[in-house]
Amino acid sequence: MRASPLTPSQWKDKLEAVNKIDEGSNMKYILLDVRNGYEWDIGHFHGAHRPDVDCFRSTSFGLSQSEVIASDPLASVDKEKTDILMYCTGGIRCDVYSSILRQRGFKNLYTLKGGVSHYLKEEGPVEWVGNLFVFDSRLSLPPSVFKPEAMTEASKTQEVSNNISFARCFICGSQLSELRHRNCANLDCNLLFLCCTGCMNDLRGCCCLKCTSATRVRPLLPGHQRYKKWHYYRDMQLQSR
């Protein structure tokens, strides 16, 4: 049995009610982000939790205490009395993981019907901070794209959401002024990450010092340019031999 789906309106009401709960209240909840790390990095619901891992499928959500890793937000949760509110971009991953959590004993499971993209179209950026990661060449979109009438005229003209104080450089941890992913210049790494200008220049577009000494490092791209498909650089190497 999967989780109970909540419409965007019901989800908004649930989040607003949750944010009004006093610390001494008996009502318990966990707002769970089941997306990948690079999706979380540029935007998520206020108050959400996500484990410190590269990919959600590698976490140990809901396992017994002896199997739990330190970053598991469900480590000491009361499975009978805690509401688990799960969300992802389109809703599919929530269906998968809610089934897993149900099998592991969690009783009160809820998912956002249609995912974040549907929520932003219906309700606007209520309780949402940052942008939404999308799986195409754009990589991220501000909430104004989904429901322009919910945004002020000033925010419509900006490429990213105003509320990005949570965003940090993957390398040095400094606060970022814009939400733009880039791929590691090391072709064999290709990690998608957020990076400040200083680290980008110091490491020549790589995500770490080790990658700068790799055998297949692409040139640092200026500004907001993106790398071409990987076979373009493979063919360049073959031609140069």
UniProtKB/TrEMBL annotation:
Signal peptide: none
PROSITE patterns to which the protein is assigned, alphabetical: RHODANESE_3 (PS50206)
PANTHER family: RHODANESE-LIKE DOMAIN-CONTAINING PROTEIN 7-RELATED, THIOSULFATE SULFURTRANSFERASE/RHODANESE-LIKE DOMAIN-CONTAINING PROTEIN 2
Protein's name according to its UniProt entry: Rhodanese domain-containing protein
Rhodanese domain ranges (all copies): 25-128
Source organism of the structure: Davidia involucrata (Dove tree)
Domain of life: Eukaryota
